[in-house]
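tool_log.txt
---
The assistant was asked to compare two proteins side by side. It first ran the structure predictor on the initial sequence, then on the second. Raw inputs and outputs are pasted verbatim so the downstream comparison step can read them without reformatting.
(1)
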Amino acid sequence: MLMLLPPQVVSAAPKNPPVLQTSALKAGLLDAVEVKSEKGAWGSERFLRWSENDRKVLLRIKPGGSSSGKAALSVWAFGPPPTAPTLGKGSAPTTPPGGKARIVHTEEIQLGGAPLEISMDFASFAPSQGPKPSWSGYAVLSSDPVVRSLQQIAAAQRQQALDAALAEIRATGSVTYAVQLTTGSGAASTWATVRYGEPAPAPFRSLLETKIHAATAEFPEVWGSSASIGEFGNTLLFRWKTDAPAVKALVQIAKDGFPDGFATWNDPTRDVQRQFVDVPAKGGTASFQLPAAKLQGAPAGTVFAARIVPLTAENNLAGLPSPAVRLSVPAAAAKAPAPAASLAFEIELVGWEPAHLPIPDDAYHYVVAGTPDKGIYESVKKVAGQEPKSGVKVYLPPKPPEKEKAWYEKVASAIASVLHFLDTVGNVAQQAFGIVEGKVAKAPFDLADMAGLPGSKVKGGLDKAAGALNLAGAKLQQMDLLGRGADYVTGRMADDLGIQDPAARAAFMGKFGGAVRTWSQQNSYLKATAGVQGGLVPDPDFQAHPGIAWIRVRAKATGAVPAGFRQAPPAASLKVGVFARNAELLGIPAEYRDLFQATVPFPTLAVGEELLVPVVTQYHWSHEQQAGTWNFAINHAEKTRYELNGKAFFGTTVNSPWGQTGGK
């Protein structure tokens, strides 16, 4: 009869538990409990693979000599892994600090002289619900009152126990059980252990991608990690590659995503859709299609995740499951009530300033901010080839640049003297960064004094505007960019302050906008850092920053509108990517990679008004996670794709500036 210890019994160990002592055992009366799965061999350990729903094992009890009579078969559970319990013959298991051991099942066995076989379902022996006390426990004999208080496991209790076991596997990867037989006389068998869960696969990787854009005459097909269901009708299009030695692959689609790790990869209750697909040839990529009808029936806004799992011939993991691809059911467009009057907006990308990727050589590019010290004035003049006045750029390499040795040898002594001087005055870059940070922090209160406004109001509005423009993304340039975006900043401030009257707004825009421009001119990077000792500061053009997009928005009337009517344009959503080709691989088409992105809200506009806004873009997520691929793409770009509010066009390569980038 299978029995389960009630939860209230497993609480805390008694102060003096009746622990069996090895010296009290009567040798030879009880030899071993062995374990095997239905097709395995007998042994002291067995692993049951959760993904195959392999739960049952056979226990073989081998009595020593002519042992007979009653004995207690006890099953212990250990957790959380990786607990390594000590299983000494005849004693209760002991666990390391923080480990837990508990009896989850005991059964009375009638021994005879011959070996005994018992079939057991180990997935039923789940961890107890509720608090899990940390105690080493003690062996329970059939004569103990605790055993007599055990209740038979009902079907509902068994299912609850199984659910709890699966929950522990999800959290830890496996559940470990140990089995021992004891008799009232003190004899005890060796331990048999069963681990139930999923073993860690080899660290092979797979990549699954879904098609984002179909191919056109001008625009090659684009693959990525997310797509809208229904983009290609009733079919989902995928491709995948792997370095795992797989012979088959399972595609899984689940609502909301998959748990981290691999322990529950084959849980059929979670998957909405699953299908086996072909494995790509070594080093290659395989494409496949899946029907989308089942997913399209989900409510608008539902998100699914798809991944691919490489498998061996035995349906075991050949490698780790791929990262998930995000599939979403398009949300229905919200139908807001039409305003009494409305404006139309023309939003355009009209200019681009390239990003600068960091390289070690950046540290040797300087610009004259003040008057260089007398000791290095002539040296800087010799290196720059002109009078070292503010704005003159100076390149001070520690060794001759390739293909320019003649130039370097000509000015080597001058460069050496400047570098020596810079070493003596400390870290010039840190001085410059510190000055910029201090000026930016003080800006709201300077502007408040200049415009006659409360400092707290200005700080809140300025923080919102600077955050929307991502000015901190171009650290040394942000004071200059603030002036170039003065109209945008002032418009956001006016909206925050609720200034709608045309005359009052015009007065505010003039006064506060003038204050922003004046402050920016007075605190430009070169003016702010002019006091750095030596007169040289890091060249901001050689400081790492993403690309800067210039977006223009114009407001037009769609019909009759009241005087002074204002409306905010929809936020601009920009994505910039490139097609890059590996010239060393002949016949391989250029591949698309996303590089930059930005979303910027606008202040309200009236009919005829327009804004020219500098937006420091943000790096695409792949900038950190796929650094090698990202850098290769930007350095080997052949064509750039700019997408603004869902409309794409091709422009000058992302490495080159173009358009209107100087402000109004």
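(2)
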Amino acid sequence: MLKPFAILYFSLVLAAGVLVGTGLVVDLEHLYSDSLGYRWQTQAFLEGRVALSEHPGDVAWDLAWANGGVQQVWGLGAPLWRLPFEAVTEWTGSGPFPDRIAFGIAVVAVFFLVIAVFAVPPRGAAVGAYWKQYPEGVCFAFLLMLFPPFLGLCRTRFLVYEEAAAYAYLTGVALLAGLVLFVRKPSLAGYLALCLIAGLAAFVRPTLVFYGGATVLTAGLWAWHWRWPLGKLALGAGAFAFAIGLLLVSNHDRFGSAMEFGHTINLNGIDPMRFATRFEAPFTSEPPVSAARELAGGLFFGGNRFNGFDSFAEDILPGQSATHRWREYYFTTYDLSYLLMLGIAWGWGIWWRVEGRRRKGEGEDGSAGVSPAEERAGCPRSDYATKGRAGCPRSRGGAARSEIGMLALWSAVAATGLFVFYLRVPVMSSRYLLDFGPAFGAVVGAFLFIVMRYVRGRFRHEGRTAMVFCAFFLVWWGWQVGTLRVADDMRGGRSVLTAEQVAARSVLDSSAMEVRHHSNGYRIGDSAEPGWPWLHLHGWNLQSGRTTAAAALFVPPLERLTLTVAPAEAAEVASGDYEIIRAKVGVEFLERESIEETPEGVEITFAGPRRKVYREGFQTAFLGFTTADELHDGESRFRLLKVEWDEAKNGRDGS
């Protein structure tokens, strides 16, 4: 039996190998990220608030201003994980806790769980002999811990964007291990805990809701086959729904809408992205076939064709659509070998269920067969036992068929949900493809178990066969790691700070500067008052009046908003073209009241927002000057001459 101390030792060694081998840790001095979104959030928690700051001047790149505060958009899960470490260092006065060490502790915790669930032999089995004869469990654990695309992500710049994806991968793997643990040792408490954690996982990254749903569905199906009463199953579904409800409540509190995760109101300098995520995205109307072709190309056929910061480059991927879309491919992820194993594992899972139903129809128990080794290990003839008992316990001969089927089902449900979700997302990146990592890792694991079930017993020397199998796996893994590539301008090693450097930047301190507007708006020739972030008025050149696809500015609570626009130089604008100009405050579109020609230009008037949350304090307004069909990375056809507003009577200026 492998002792917990030994498991911890292996976990520490492998985690240290990941951190050092990928370049996340280059020395013991530079252990802090210069991407501070998570650090600011943890600091806010320590000060008893959720908003990073209550001053709009603190809005930095990709942060959002909502509900009277600065909000980060990369989830609350990772900052909550870091919270106890930061609390201890603040209490002891030992300085900021290293970001890389906090991430490393998470890696160790997940690695410990993976080894304990997938690599530890059954009780009473000798460790060395079991691993030699049945290496597939160890190979699976090794793969999940050192998953090649995960290692590739860790070799990148590892800003908060990549850090969020890395924490999401670890969380997805932990959910898989928890599911397997529940199936092997089911209990009501374990079921409820699993379902609750599955829902809370979405706090780490919203796309983990697909893994949470797959976990609850799979655990519920197995419990149903064990003839658990519907009341117990409903409790698990309720725990999952409760956790998701907490997420929606936090969204409403932070961003003003339960279904808003911050990505349609955050501020950055990428004007076409701002338009696509606020107003209309060309790719949301992409035909399903071509959208699926592009996503499959990015997943399995992308190779080393990167575009880095050239976000609107063409012909990056095989099957890439010509539709305008922000794309950022900068490290390798999967290849055709994953697609092959996916087809085999999912096909086997379908066959297992069909065969089980056929056997049940012939009067058998529907287990799709149990090997003699499993029967000798105490596994009942059915993969599912009677009410209150466990499913098939892990045999001394590798994974039971039900466990392989569980891996196939869990991965299929999660990957299908992710695939459908990413079909129409207006932005795509290599790190988004890592969201498929836990599902594809489970696919590879199912494939390993399927192959070993097939070859075991068909050769005279089972131990020698197992070693050959293990060698082939290590060659494949080595090839995957050896062919990892990261775009030169996205490599890691540069975005790290020392403790002194991060301490000087870890506190948002613009709140000492008062912010105010001109009396009732802006016009050409004006300049922004001090105290606003540089992203204020982005997309509108106050000297020339030229606009991009979408502009962003801070406004007081509005009763009415009026834009005066004119055609840009040499632009062809018909009278009806002014109707394409739109305005939003937060997530609410403003209703257009009138379009009138004046001696100065065309005057477009919008009514103020109706929602109460947008009628108090400073708000972020977005102005759209194009359509999805005309979207490009450049200037629009319009000049904005001035922006005027009437403040809401019950509003506050928030200064």
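---
observation on (2): The two ends are 64 Å apart (CA to CA). The CA atoms of residues 214 and 413 lie 6 Å apart.
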